[in-house]
């Protein structure tokens, strides 16, 4: 190795991320990924942690957890996470993709984890106390973390007492609480995921339920009482207020993950309605009006001895970086699907694999029993490797897959054909979270150190 | 002077805690070094649910427990305060009747 660093090419941009989605696709392949591991509802009273997983086939520790970054207390229920900086500040040399912001849904504590000093052994850098957030902003139950330039915005699902509709928390680049991000929350009944497309001044947010409704578990009676969401909110992003709300109706019960095209010039995006198990497509038409249409319908299945037909339960969706493929998981049925969305109004099924699930189609994968089903999915920037974990949420896991609390979660890798479509389970990769040193954990969201297909936006 | 009650954790070797009437049972247990499941600490998430086998507690109205779960005998230790001597079953082992698959059961 030469002692002086190679000179940067003249056109190199000093900030984090990539100049465009096309450039992101050509990024170097990941060597490790980070995954949330949690102990809530398992009977092991230990703190949740961030697992660092070796995904480099050349490495002697390939397909193993190589580090565990523990949180200071028990009971957070770590869930989703986001970066302090992404391609949205690619032009800002003072920023770097360095910290993962990891909130706890049950405690509202935020943990800032340094992944840059040693990417193979991240360390806890800072904690923001959940009680302080509740006191200063009257918000609780953090979900999605996005950055925009040097600002960090987090969807919060409840007020300090766990009631709807919550709002959005604004942190600055030093992880200080600025306050609430939105100027006006009128029109929002519940909150969940959000994503934005600044070139069109658009932001979309979806609706789960109040923390006091979903934290204790899922109850069909609550759906009947209107305690779960069914609306999509289209925001005036700069004005920080809702411009238009679209009621998805019976077909759109519990709209969760929202995904814009990565192409910053596009107005198209998709959302999965979990309970109705439909995918909706939105876009702005020639007149600039938002249109929403159902484009995929996963039928519920009658299961012997179940009085109520079982929905697929679409819990996570993703778009490949080239905006060509849509992926989603049916967490109750147990399948993972890939659709070609070159024509976003007419998706074409191009791949499907089965992993666990209540229909019993794939009780084992690579010789391991699966207690759960595909849930969180995260795709590499080049669109070829999809990492899949099995836990949804501790209380919901305990309703639908009670054996997970003793058996632990799993991570599998699905190899995706980014040219012709198609998916296959990778036979060489498997993480059994049942074998963790302090006892079996659930495994939830995954992030790639160099960014992935739900972490970056372009301004 | 505030009264105290005896709270027995049946599945923790029948450990006996003295818990004040103004104290939550969770606080009493944690003060004695027990690590029990906990999350929100305000009665909103049922992570701390335990089965009340015997005795009486008060908890705020409008906790996150559903009617079915209350009928099955669950209380929330983070907000429950004793009003009599109590016997409890605690921890995830006590959650056998807490969760059901809503598609697999008939509504009440
Ligand atoms: S810890 Fe959440 S209800 Fe007690």
How would you describe this protein?
The complex is a heterodimer of chains A (459) and B (108). Chain A is 7% helix and 37% strand. Chain A is mainly beta. Chain B has a single domain (4-94), classed as Ubiquitin-like (UB roll) (Roll), CATH 3.10.20.30. Chain B contains two helices and seven strands, in the order ββαββαβββ. Chain B has a five-stranded mixed β-sheet with strand order 2-1-7-3-5. In chain B, a hairpin with a 5-residue loop joins strand 1 and strand 2. The termini of chain B are far apart. Classes of the chains: A mainly beta (459), B alpha+beta (108). FE2/S2 (inorganic) cluster is lined by residues 38-41, 43-48, 76, 78 of chain B. The site of FE2/S2 (inorganic) cluster (FES) has 12 residues of chain B, from loops.
Briefly note the CATH topology name of chain A. Answer: Methylamine Dehydrogenase, Chain H
- SSE run of chain B: EEHEEHEEE
Examine the coordinates and then state which fold CATH places here, giving the name of the CATH topology of chain B.
Ubiquitin-like (UB roll)
Q: Approximately what portion of the residues of chain B adopt beta-strand conformation?
A: 25-35%
Ligand set: FE2/S2 (inorganic) cluster
Reported CATH architecture of chain A? 7 Propeller
User: Would you count the extended β strands of chain A for me?
Assistant: 30
First-residue to last-residue Cα separation of chain A = 37 Å
Q: Which structural class is indicated by helix and strand composition of chain A?
A: mainly beta
Uncertain regions spanning at least 5 consecutive residues of chain A: 1-11
End-to-end C-alpha gap of chain B: 44 Å
């Amino acid at each position: 190795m030469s002692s002086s660093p190679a000179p940067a090419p003249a056109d190199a941009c000093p900030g984090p991320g990539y100049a465009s989605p096309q450039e992101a696709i050509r990024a170097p392949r990941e060597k490790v990924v980070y995954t949330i591991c949690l102990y809530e509802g398992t009977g092991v009273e230990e703190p949740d942690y961030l697992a660092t997983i070796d995904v480099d086939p050349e490495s002697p520790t390939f397909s193993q957890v190589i580090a565990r970054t523990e949180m200071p207390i028990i009971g957070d229920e770590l869930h989703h996470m986001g970066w302090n900086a992404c391609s949205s500040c690619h032009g800002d040399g003072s920023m770097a993709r360095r910290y993962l912001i990891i909130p706890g849904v049950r405690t509202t504590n935020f943990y800032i984890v340094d992944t840059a000093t040693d990417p193979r052994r991240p360390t806890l850098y800072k904690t923001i106390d959940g009680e302080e957030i509740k006191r200063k902003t009257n918000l609780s139950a953090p979900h999605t973390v996005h950055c925009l330039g040097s600002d960090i915005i987090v969807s919060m699902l409840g007020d300090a007492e766990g009631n709807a509709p919550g709002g959005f928390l604004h942190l600055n680049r030093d992880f200080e609480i600025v306050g609430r991000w939105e100027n006006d929350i009128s029109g929002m009944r519940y909150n969940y995921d959000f994503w934005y497309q600044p070139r069109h001044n658009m932001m979309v947010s979806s609706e789960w339920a109040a923390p006091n409704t979903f934290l204790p578990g899922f109850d069909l009676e609550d759906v009947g009482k209107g305690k779960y969401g069914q609306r999509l909110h289209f925001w005036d992003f700069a004005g920080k207020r809702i411009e238009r709300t679209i009621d998805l109706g019976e077909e759109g019960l519990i709209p969760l993950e929202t995904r814009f095209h990565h192409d910053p010039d596009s107005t198209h995006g998709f959302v999965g309605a979990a309970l109705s198990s439909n995918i909706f497509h939105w876009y702005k038409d020639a007149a600039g009006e938002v249109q929403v249409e159902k484009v995929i319908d996963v039928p519920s299945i009658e299961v012997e001895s179940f009085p109520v037909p079982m929905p697929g339960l679409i819990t996570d969706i993703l778009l490949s970086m080239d905006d060509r493929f849509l992926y989603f998981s049916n967490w109750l049925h147990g399948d993972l699907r890939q659709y070609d969305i070159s024509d976003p109004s007419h998706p074409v099924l191009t791949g499907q694999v089965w992993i666990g699930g209540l229909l019993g189609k794939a009780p084992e994968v690579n010789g391991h029993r699966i207690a759960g089903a595909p849930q969180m999915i995260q795709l590499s920037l080049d669109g070829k490797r999809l990492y899949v974990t099995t836990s949804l949420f501790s209380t919901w896991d305990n309703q639908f897959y009670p054996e997970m609390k003793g058996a632990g979660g799993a991570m599998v890798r699905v190899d995706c054909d980014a040219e012709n479509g198609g998916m296959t389970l990778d036979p060489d990769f498997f993480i059994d979270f049942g074998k963790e040193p302090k006892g079996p954990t659930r495994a939830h969201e995954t992030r790639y150190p160099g960014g992935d297909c739900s972490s970056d936006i372009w301004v | 002077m505030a009264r105290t009650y005896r709270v027995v954790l049946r599945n923790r070797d029948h450990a006996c805690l003295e818990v004040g009437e103004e104290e939550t049972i969770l606080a009493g247990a944690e003060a004695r070094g027990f690590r029990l499941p906990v999350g929100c600490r305000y009665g909103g998430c049922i992570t701390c649910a335990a089965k009340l086998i015997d005795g009486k507690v008060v908890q705020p109205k409008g906790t996150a427990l559903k009617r079915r779960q209350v009928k099955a005998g669950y209380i929330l230790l983070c907000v429950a305060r004793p009003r009599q001597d109590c016997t409890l079953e605690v921890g995830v082992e006590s959650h056998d009747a807490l969760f059901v698959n809503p598609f697999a059961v008939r509504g009440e």
